[in-house]
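note to self — DONT lose this again. spent like an hour looking for the file last time. sequence + predicted structure for the chain T wanted, 282 res
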Amino acid sequence: MQTPRNLAQWALILLAAALTIMLMVLPLVLIFSKALGAGWELVAHNLADTDMRHAIRLTLLAAVITVPVNLVFGILLAWCVTRYEFRGRKLLTTFIDIPFAMSPVVAGLCYLIVYSIESRFGGWLYDQGIQLMFAWPGIVMVTIFVTCPYVARVLIPLMESQGSEEEEAALLLGASGWQTFRHVTLPNIKWALLYGVVITNARAVGEFGAVSVVSGAIRGQTLTLPLHVELLHQDYNTVGAFTAAGLLALLALVTLVLKSVMEWRQRRLLADTDTLSRPEQA
């Protein structure tokens, strides 16, 4: 890190700051100003709307199910690729990034082809009384898909840098696998784990593309908050649309604060790990 020394460097910094304000800060200010511009009573009226409350509940339901599933999946995947050497390990690591590389709309379309009533498997499930697409289970399924890499991608570099010496020592001393994970592994990865949970929750709450494909956008039944914003905008309910968008923006701001805290704690942990490893290397 160095201090800017000439006019060109200061101009570059000012340009970056101006673009940040124009592209990120002003839209947030606009959302809250539009939502609150007509007064709190109209905001309260929109929040009390039945469809709005259903959209909030469905959004929270998708996040509440998605986060624990991806928490377990991320820990399991990170453990496998950092603690075991096996054929196909690199391929498995590559597969983690599929949701990053694939458009959410394409992912939603794939789920629709496989699990809709028109497909053989989806039709069989429907005959058993199970409807996945155009219902909340489909929304949860695609939300889990698009958010599944986050926890694993945060844990893998940290667990690789920490190594497995402490866990092997605990096992040699007679600890069980669960005791080793609870008393040795978990304390070392807890901040990275929380960071992964925060960004997974943020993406789950705001997912639009994949959810819009599999939900069917049925008013009062399969609309999450991002889809409800679009519907209100199409209905020319500007205040309602900005109220729903304001809720999402508020969640994003809370996530931003939590993310910053987790990043700070994770940097501290990595710095402590480097400090402890240097005398051994010397």
